[in-house]
Amino acid sequence: MKNSPSPSRFSMKVTETTQAQALGFFVNQDEKRAPVPATGLPGIADPMLKGSPFKGAAKTNLFLRSTSDEPHVLFIGVGQKKELTPETFRLAGSAAYSKVQTEGAESFAISFDELVKAAGSKAADACLEAFLQGYGMTSYKFDKYKSDKKDPKVLKIEVVASGELKKRAAAALNRAAIQMDSIQIVRDFSNEPSNFGTPEYYASEIQKICRTHGLKCRVLNEAAAKKEKMDLFLSVGNGSKRESQVVIVTYEPKVKAKKTIAFAGKGVTFDTGGISLKPGARMEDMKHDMTGAATLFGATLAAARLGCKNRIVTILGFTENMPSSTATTPSSVVTARNGKTVEIINTDAEGRLVLGDVLDLCCDEKPDLVVDVATLTGACGIALGKFCSALFVNNDKLLKHFQAAEEKTAERLWQLPLWDEYFDDMKSATADMMNISSDGTGGTIRGAIFLKQFVRKGTDWAHIDIANRASDNPVVPYHPRKGASGVYTRFLTELAMDFE
Ligand code: BES
Ligand code: MN
Ligand code: ZN
Question: Which partner from 8, 21, 79, 202 sits 20 to 30 angstroms from 449, CA to CA?
């Protein structure tokens, strides 16, 4: 049982008719009437809304409990047609799951024909996919270490569709299922307790999953990383008896790749701070410090399964940051893979040491774009709060790709500056640079400007600091109240799919 993945809490299928215990009806605010029940669903809904104050505003719903053999009915508000986006449906799917689950129904059906009416035919496929994502993401629970699993029930969702709409519904369902599988992996990885979630654990889990899906996966142990001259990365794990691992996942499209994308992930399996030890309060949250790596693996897997046209090389640095007599001491000078020397002033600024070498290794692939993702700085939450994470790019031309992915997924990023002046007081008297600034200001930017020193000239690069949203981000209804959110998995999947 230990370390087996947590079971999926929902299942999906496309059907022509349904016996589901609860039926969902989309209600458009501008039509001022109940929806016309479409093919496959019993014609019970229409009269129910007569005289009801429920008008179908977005983010509202109305559950009517059946006391007979008839199914329960959930009216799902989607607001005005001209204002609705996939996110409207993602939130609706999330609310539907919560409602249907608390009401104790075990199966739920919606009609795609009717969704087409509510959203318009052009938007319908993306809206169905989003609805299923919202439903699926909300069903997640991490209870593999509970001896008494209170609610292991699977909540079925059926998509009723007729004629040619059946194919479209099945395709949207398939896309949602692939993404939900990845989000489940990302959340499970991130939530894994630090005594089980070691560098070797993630390396072997990733290898297994890669084998299942035909992805190439190579693992460098410490000796191999040493041969690769990754001393900056290795310096982080010096205090841990658990062996650091570099995991390299490669996806090659079936036909000649359009572009190469390299992903670089911070995978610190537990961050005590090292000799610059963190205070005890909430230190347990630092089991999530490998979420950047988990997120990029999840996105790589989803993009591969969705038939991405780009080649993806994903390099993940897994290591544990511990204090001990062999741990790196402040004032240590270490030579990075790219030849630059770093004076380590604070061993708690370790993510940038991991990524410095991983980014250099990524550059060997001559990628058209490198993106690193990391829970890099606590300052990120001070600057941005909970509703977006930080984005840095070394070429503003890249922004359009990020904006497109943001629009599709409603996972928001906000750009911060990368001006070289921010590096001025990170220069070291002893080595080429220090791993923190002298004055302690602008923490998130300092992390980014440090990483910039490891990106080869001419390489397009983006850095995403997700420290403020990777875990405990309940401001989004489809994120769990506690623990890993899985945020940016969908974003990075879309980025990889659409980059050209
Ligand atoms: N893993 C932390 C950042 C972090 C903090 C992630 C809170 C999630 C929640 C990172 O390694 C770290 O310790 N950063 C230091 C940097 C400082 C020493 C310059 C920080 O933010 O305090
Ligand atoms: Mn740290
Ligand atoms: Zn860290």
Answer: 202
Q: Burial code of 443-460, b = ≥16 C-beta within 10 A, e = fewer? A: bbbbbbbbbbbbbeeebb
Q: Chain-centre distance of CA 174, in angstroms?
A: 18
Domains and CATH numbers, the chain: 10-180 (3.40.220.10), 192-498 (3.40.630.10)
Q: Tokens 């200001």 — which residue?
A: 441
Exposure of 169 by Cβ count < 10 A (0-12 exposed, 13-18 middle, 19+ buried)? Answer: buried
Cβ-based neighbour number of residue 63 at 10 Å: 17
Q: Whose CA is nearest to atom 13 of ligand 1?
A: 348
346 ligand 1 Cβ < 6 A: yes
Residue 422 alpha carbon to ligand 1 centre in Å: 18
Radius of gyration in angstroms for the set of CA atoms belonging to the chain, rounded to a whole number: 24
Measured in whole angstroms, how far is the alpha carbon of residue 45 from the centre of its chain? 37
CA 450, 451, 452, 457: dihedral to nearest 10 degrees?
130
Distance 471 CA to ligand 2 centre (A): 16
Q: What residue type is 50 in one-letter code?
A: K
At 432, the amino acid letter reads D
Tokens of 392: 């840095």
Averages of pLDDT over each 10 residues, the chain, 500 residues:
67 95 89 51 64 88 92 92 95 97 95 91 96 97 88 86 96 98 98 98 98 98 98 99 99 95 99 98 98 99 98 99 98 99 99 99 98 99 98 98 98 98 98 98 98 98 99 98 98 98
Token pair in block for residue 77: 């508000």
Per the DSSP assignment, residues forming a β-bridge with 217 are 249
Q: ∠ at Cα 140 (301, 198), nearest 5°?
A: 60
Instruction: Write the DSSP assignment of 295-308 as a string of letters.
Output: HHHHHHHHHHHTT-
Measured from the Cα of 273, ligand 1's closest atom is 13
Q: Give the position, in ligand 1's atom list, of the atom nearest the Cα of 379.
A: 21
Q: How many residues does the chain have?
A: 500
371: tokens are: 């993106």
Known catalytic residue at 397: no
Q: Does the C-beta of 205 come closer than 6 Å to ligand 1?
A: no
Q: 259, 425, 271: which is closest to 353 by C-alpha?
A: 271
Regarding the beta carbon of 377 and ligand 1, being less than 6 Å apart is answered yes
Reported pTM: 0.97
Q: Is 436 in the pocket of ligand 1 (CB under 6 A)?
A: yes
Token pair 């591969």: residue = 304
Tokens for 216, please give them.
């190439």
Mutate to test the pocket of ligand 1, among 190, 348, 436, 487 (most ligand atoms within 8 A of CB): 348
Query: Ligand 1, residues 350, 373, 377: which to mutate, most atoms within 8 A of Cβ?
Result: 377
User: Is the CB of residue 467 below 6 angstroms from any atom belonging to ligand 1?
Assistant: yes
- Among protein residues, the one with the nearest Cα to ligand 1's atom 17 is 349
